[in-house]
Amino acid sequence: MTQNTTQNRRLVLASRPQGAPVAENFRLEEQPVAEPADGQVLLRTIWLSLDPYMRGRMSDAPSYSPPVEIGAVMVGGTVSQVVKSRHSEYHEGEWVLSYSGWQEYELSDGTGLVKLGDDLEHPSWALGILGMPGFTAYMGLLDIGQPKEGETLVVAAATGPVGATVGQIGKIKGCRVVGVAGGAEKCRYAEEVLGFDSCLDHHADDFAGQLARACPKGIDVYYENVGGKVFDAVLPLLNTSSRVPICGLVSGYNATGLPDGPDRLPLLLGTLLKKRIRMQGFIIAQDYGDRIGEFQEEMGRWLKEGKIHYREQVTDGLENAPQALIGLLEGKNFGKVVIRVAQDNG
Ligand SMILES: NC(=O)c1ccc[n+]([C@@H]2O[C@H](COP(=O)([O-])OP(=O)(O)OC[C@H]3O[C@@H](n4cnc5c(N)ncnc54)[C@H](OP(=O)(O)O)[C@@H]3O)[C@@H](O)[C@H]2O)c1
Q1: Extents of the domains making up the chain
Q2: Model confidence over 254-301: pLDDT tens digits?
Q3: pTM, two decimal places
Q4: Is residue 151 lining ligand 1, measured as CB closer than 6 Å?
């Protein structure tokens, strides 16, 4: 993988997807790499994070963040290196967590950058287990889910960065953890490597029956990542006083309308009422941004103690980001999706 040091390649949003994104929704462009002015740094993207929320930014439907404009660089978290500095607080070679998006270089005045130091053992982890997805798992589960020893916790997208972390924290807290994932290989990994008590394939014809058998005492915490058929199977199993952190609904991100079938809203509301279930949505940065320190401290300790396993799916080359995002939304990823945009300078 070589990288041009005079041209900045960037992927912009060419058009808004109808349903699942396709390659034509993105356009690769080149422009000269800019020189930093006084008070600026030039950042080189080494790692780019791909995350399900990016599908939402491609759409102009109302949401908690504004959409990417047509022709603008796709948004995304990056781990970048300072390659030129005319900013008194940054020096060449240091690592930063940035929001540079899908491009190889970015000029920054330091706003929003998080210093990561000069020498990082696993730079890309700042986009995953030690970053936004790990933090999301931690706060959503502990603050909203409030798991207690001996309770049953169910989480889907169980081998992704959020789900895998939720389940492993659940085990640390003494829960019986049932994962839901797409396919036998992911389920085996959840049980054998992540230590879940059981993991079920949501593609199975009798998935709802399997889930009921795997949760003989019902479900006390359902950490919602996917919605759709998985939630339909979970709803009748929720116990009185159960908690449901609503983190994401990825099964519907490519949907163009409401699902078929009868109106299930009365069933949902009736179940919430009779069983006094607490359901709460959250957006990690907006709701918990001030608590990142407590997460980093505890997660750092768990990683050192070998209590948390972390898996990445690395794709080389910025030009391959569109296919990687399309695959992520279809469940083709196995672990946290990161794009290695360039090799680091060590
Ligand atoms: N609220 C927040 O602040 C916040 C922050 C970060 C992430 N999130 C949400 O957390 C969830 C997980 O994120 P992540 O980064 O860890 O993603 P991820 O697990 O790496 O990727 C999404 C996974 O969803 C599963 N999936 C896709 N379509 C599905 C379907 N129809 N039914 C069931 N599962 C399906 C696939 O896994 P399988 O093949 O295993 O089914 C896919 O790999 C997403 O909903 C995301 O939007 C929310």
Answers
A1: 7-127+311-340, 132-285
A2: 999 888 888 999 999 999 999 999 999 999 999 999 999 999 999 999
A3: 0.96
A4: no
